Amino acid sequence: MMLAATLGPEPYLILGAIMFTLGAVGLLVRRNTLVMFMCVELMLNAVNLSFVAISRELDDLGGQIAVFFVLVVAAAEVVVGLGIIVSIFRRRQGATADDLSMLKG
Amino acid sequence: MHMEQAVFILGALICLLGAIGVIAFRNPVHSALSLVTTLFGVAVLFIALGAEFLAAVQVIVYAGAIVVMFLFVIMLLGVDQTDDVGFEPLKGQRAGAIVAGVLLVSGLISVVVFGAVTGAGSANAEIQAKVPNVEQLARSLFTDYLFAFEITSVLLVIGVVGAVTLARHRRDAFIDELPHDELPDPDPTPADEVTS
Fold first, then answer.
1. If we measure between CA atoms, which residue out of B31, B154, B51 comes closest to residue A48?
2. Mean pLDDT across the stretch B74-80?
3. Which chain A residues are within 8 Å of B179, Cβ to Cβ?
4. CA-wise closest residue to A3 among B7, B130, B9
5. What is the pLDDT of residues B127-175, one digit of tens each?
6. pLDDT tens per residue, chain A (105 residues)?
7. Nearest to A54 by CA among B139, B112, B128, B2
8. B133 or B107, higher pLDDT
9. Tell me, what's the ipTM?
């Protein structure tokens, strides 16, 4: 069931903008690598919300398909990213992003 | 007040509170749980926008799989609370980040407020009110986007292989110190044989 569309896309886009900015600020401010990763997920979700809002406004299913692929890519990205974080933490105990200045372990 | 406005206000509040929690909590476990809150809020808004399938996938994949994986890694590595909020390694970085955030959000919002959503209506993928959302998405995914859909399976296989390769124990790797949960090698090879 679809709710009667009484709102345009603008409120959703503004909410997406605020969520994206919160994610970006968190990425810059926090130093824990896992929390930085969560902030990236926040930014991806903000963009997904904008995609679906525009999809309804333009009456085009392509936006929802794009969100579907973003979900798949985000899942793959999280798997590889967490694998990298685990292998980094194996070598250095309790590392924040500041301690990871060397590429060679 | 119309139904959609009420749903939007509720969903937006959930999203924003969760998003602030992700960046404000010091404990990474609390941040991960705040992320779940935000993801549920986004799922509510997806339903309000008529994307039921994406709302379900959002809850199953994001809240169910991705956040559980985050929590698993946090528990595996131990909760790290050394992320001291008072310590600033780069002078003025926090203030700069907040100024950049204010500029970014005001720029994005002014684009939405003073601009207009333009673009042609759909040529071949109109959303039909009579057909269920899942059926429309499936039809589109398995016809127009079939190649992209098949390619994502390759991406997922690469992700699995990459995760296994990165996360497995390698005994000959250069390790600063043994992880505290790993027992020392019972039969250590002499050092000169390893380095030669």
1. B51
2. 78
3. 90
4. B7
5. 777 788 888 899 989 998 999 999 999 999 999 998 888 877 665 555 5
6. 455 567 888 899 999 999 999 999 999 988 888 899 999 999 999 999 999 999 988 888 889 999 999 999 999 999 998 888 888 777 766 556 766 666 554
7. B112
8. B107
9. 0.88
Amino acid, res. B167: A
Q: Render chain A in DSSP notation, one character per residue.
A: ------S-SHHHHHHHHHHHHHHHHHHHH---HHHHHHHHHHHHHHHHHHHHHHHHHTTBTHHHHHHHHHHHHHHHHHHHHHHHHHHHHHHSTT--GGG---S--
- Angle at the Cα of A50 from the Cα atoms of A38 and B133, rounded to 5 degrees: 105
What is this structure's pTM?
Answer: 0.83
Instruction: Select the residue from A20, A39, A72 to test the B interface by mutation, using most B Cβ atoms within 10 A.
Output: A72
Query: What is the spatial distance between Cα B192 and Cα B183, in angstroms, rounded to a whole number?
Result: 22
Structural tokens at position B134? 């899942």
Residues with Cβ within 8 Å of B77's Cβ and at least 6 positions away in sequence, in order, are: A85, A86, A89
Angle at which helices A62-91 and B133-141 cross, to 10°? 80
The amino acid present at A23, given as its one-letter code, is G
Contact B66, B53 (CB under 8 A): no
Residues in chain A within 8 Å Cβ distance of B22 = 22-23, 26, 35, 38-39, 42
Q: Which two tokens stand for residue B148?
A: 């992209």
